[in-house]
Design brief:
The chain is of the alpha/beta class. The protein contains 15 helices and 16 strands. It folds into two domains: 108 residues, Urease, subunit C, domain 1, CATH 2.30.40.10; 289 residues, TIM Barrel, CATH 3.20.20. The longest helix is centred in the middle third of the chain and has 18 residues. It binds zinc ion.
């Protein structure tokens, strides 16, 4: 299968090179894909003769970007928590709600009580909406099972969804999300269960590519997180950490020192850790929905970017602190509340998000050789797209050379 997209108003190649704002814009562009790979991109006027007779789609002046990558979601969960939304509006803190048995604990109970088939159907319905937004790759965490049986159930949901729908899923094991209630007096026993039983089985069955840990007040300690990430690393899993979200613990520097692919949240990061993170090459994943819904501080992206740390933006889709998978809205929030330019945000949701998932050699860019994953956006420019925030500006999605959504 080969085809050419012509009449592109603006195309962003999003190379890994250059700074956060270097998105490789080509005005008046065309793009050729063959067998799911980009083989040529450039000015429409320069399209080589050998591609002139290919099946062509006229983009009619639209914007073309690499398929968006949501590199941090908690896609599979039972129930919702709309009641807590009201409690938080009335002034109760996320921690106070959690201490009273709400928060993540209530989603753990709901997820344990939902069958694998029902969880699959619910996540599948979300993915059917998500692809229409231009998202072609999505990271998805476990972490609402918190037992061998139910963590594996969540990861098996992702395994089956990978076969039944076109979005590439990147499964992450987050057994260290919170200590489940039945282990609250025996935290060390739960940490051993993760290290000695869950992680070896997940690595053996290749049910997850990454291991994530949530290190914060009310979750795991720095030392517990380090034990878990060290074990995951020894088993060959990639590493991530929810770090410095609601307080500073030193988790970001610890995980970076272990070679973490990405560090999530970082709203309370201490600037003295910037150099460690930069030298480790970890991606900082910014999650503006969580700041919006928790009415917490936003990530100080400017200091990260100035330090040369690649920044990604993701939704953190989950039923508590970020109950939306609208990545384009998270992108506009990153512009408005994190002082990132639209170009910087586009790079954050393409090649930098690919780097957070250790896929920056294959996806996240439209340079020749990359997988033909792209979105056609009904906007004349990247700036206009994020500024206007239409209900859905995406009018076409190609995944691996195949059209998977067309308006
Ligand atoms: Zn998260």
């Amino acid at each position: 299968m080969s085809n050419v997209i012509r009449g592109i108003g603006q195309l962003a190649t999003c190379p890994i090179t250059g700074g956060q704002d270097h998105i490789g814009i080509i005005e008046g562009a065309a793009l050729v894909q063959q067998q799911g790979r980009v083989v040529w991109v450039g000015k429409d006027n320069d399209l080589p003769a050998e591609f002139q007779s290919l099946d062509a789609l006229d983009a009619q002046g639209a914007l073309v970007v690499p398929g968006l990558i949501d590199c941090h979601t908690h896609l599979c969960f039972g129930g919702w928590r709309g009641d807590e939304f009201e409690m938080r509006i009335q002034g109760q803190s996320y921690q106070a709600i959690a201490a009273a048995g709400g928060g993540i604990r209530s989603t753990v109970a709901a997820t344990r009580n939902t069958s694998q088939d029902d969880l699959t159907a619910k996540a599948s319905a979300a993915l059917a909406q998500i692809i229409q937004l231009g998202v072609t790759t999505l990271e998805c965490k476990s972490g609402y099972g918190l037992s061998v049986e139910h963590e594996l159930k969540q990861l098996c949901v992702y395994q089956s969804l990978q076969q039944s729908q076109p979005i590439e899923l990147v499964p992450t094991f987050l057994g260290a999300h919170i200590v489940p209630p039945e282990y609250s007096e025996q935290r060390d026993v739960y940490v051993r269960l993760i290290c000695d039983t869950m992680l070896p089985q997940i690595a053996e069955e290749k049910l997850a590519e990454f291991c994530d840990v949530y290190i914060d007040t009310g979750a795991f300690s720095l030392d517990e997180g380090k034990q878990i990430l060290s074990r995951a690393k020894a088993l060959g899993l990639g590493l991530k950490a929810h770090a410095e979200q609601l307080s500073y613990t030193g988790a970001a520097a610890m995980a970076a020192s272990l070679g973490a692919a990405s560090l999530e949240h970082l709203e309370y990061l201490d600037h003295s850790d910037l150099q460690t993170i930069q030298q480790a090459g970890s991606v900082a994943v910014s999650l503006p929905f969580a700041s919006l819904y928790l009415r917490e501080r936003y990530l100080d992206c400017r200091s990260l970017i100035e330090q040369g740390i690649p920044v990604a933006v993701a939704t953190d889709f989950n039923p508590g602190s970020a109950p939306s998978y609208q990545l384009p809205m998270a992108m506009t929030l990153a512009c408005l509340n994190q002082q990132m330019t639209p170009a910087e945000v586009l790079k954050a949701c393409t090649i930098h998000a690919a780097k957070a998932l250790q896929r920056e050699q294959r996806i996240g860019s439209l340079l020749p050789g990359f997988q033909a994953d792209l979105a056609i956006i009904n906007a004349p420019t990247v700036n206009h797209w994020m500024y206007h925030l239409q209900s859905n500006a995406c009018v076409g999605v190609m995944k691996n050379g195949n059209w998977v959504h067309q308006v």
